[in-house]
Amino acid sequence: EPLVESGGGSVQAGGSLRLSCVASGYAYGHYCLGWFRQTNRREWVSAITPDGATQYGNAVKGRFTISTHNAKNTLYLQMNSLKPEDTAMYYCAARRGDCPSGSWPFDGNNRWGQGTQVTVSS
């Protein structure tokens, strides 16, 4: 099943955006869902475990919030206090089972969306 992101765009520093990812077929309670971003490398941003616990990378902790709307099969990333260094292509990701601690291994068990671009200007 595809993961379909939306909500990217261009904002000024200090602004906010909310990314959405429709994750049909990735049943709540069975998958780790998360967000990555990529400039010259793919960086783990945040994840939500099958039991609803949230995890954040140090670069976004306190500014970004991950959440799900289970009835809509949708994953969100609320991004506040955006900085120019947050500029990247953002990808939604799913991985069966519990979440790794921090970044995920790139071992073929991850499913990726097509990405949505976020650009933050100073």
CA radius of gyration is 13 Å
Based on Cα principal axes, name the global outline: globular
Number of helices: 0
Strand content: over 45%
Q: What helical percentage do the residues reach?
A: under 10%
Structural class category: mainly beta
Unreliable stretches: none
The whole-number mean of residue pLDDT values reads: 94
Number of strands: 11
Largest sheet: 7 strands, mixed
What is the end-to-end distance? Answer: 37 Å
Helices and strands in order, then pairings?
Layout: E1 4-6, E2 9-12, E3 17-22, E4 31-38, E5 42-48, E6 54-56, E7 64-69, E8 74-79, E9 88-96, E10 110-112, E11 116-121
Parallel strand pairs: 2-11
Antiparallel strand pairs: 1-3, 3-8, 4-5, 4-9, 5-6, 7-8, 9-10, 9-11
Written description of the protein model:
The chain has 122 residues and is mainly β. The protein has strands at 4-6, 9-12, 17-22, 31-38, 42-48, 54-56, 64-69, 74-79, 88-96, 110-112, 116-121. The strands form two sheets. Strands 2, 4, 5, 6, 9, 10 and 11 form a seven-stranded mixed sheet that branches. A four-stranded antiparallel sheet has the order 1-3-8-7, with no helix packed on it. A hairpin with a 5-residue loop joins strand 5 (42-48) and strand 6 (54-56). The radius of gyration is 13 Å and the shape is globular. The N and C termini lie far apart (37 Å). The model has no long low-confidence stretch (mean pLDDT 94).
